[in-house]
């Protein structure tokens, strides 16, 4: 099924094909990162509850928070990367560029929170 693409949009897409392909690679890298973040959260939570015989309340809470925050951070990363992908796509077609300062800051801050929780967890063991 052939999609009807306006001539102007098609011309811009072809003019900046390398930039569009780079944008797609960046998007896929963000998706892989989100999956890895969620995977680490599941791993820590699963290891905590299967490897420990004597579990304290605070350790359980921290392990659950690691899992929860990792999943939330992974979902937020997917949402932000998808929005960023479409913004970049439009910016490439309009021949303008704006760096994603807010997205990078928010994701970095959230990842720092997860790392602090990891650190607290490993200190409590």
How would you describe this structure to a colleague?
InterPro entries: DUF202, IM_YidH-like. Keywords: Cell membrane, Membrane, Transmembrane, Transmembrane helix. It is a multi-pass membrane protein. This is DUF202 domain-containing protein. There is one protein chain. This protein has 125 residues and is an all-alpha fold. The chain contains 4 helices and no strands. Helix 2 packs antiparallel against helix 3 and helix 3 (57-93) runs antiparallel to helix 4. It is elongated, with a radius of gyration of 20 Å. It starts with 6 loop residues before the first helix and ends with a helix. The model has no long low-confidence stretch (mean pLDDT 81).
Write a brief caption for the model:
This protein has 125 residues and is mostly helical. The protein has four helices and no strands.
Name its key features.
single chain, 125 residues, mainly alpha, elongated, DUF202, transmembrane, DUF202 domain-containing protein, cell membrane
Give the helix/strand layout.
Layout: H1 7-15, H2 17-51, H3 57-93, H4 101-124
Helix pairs in contact: 2-3, 3-4
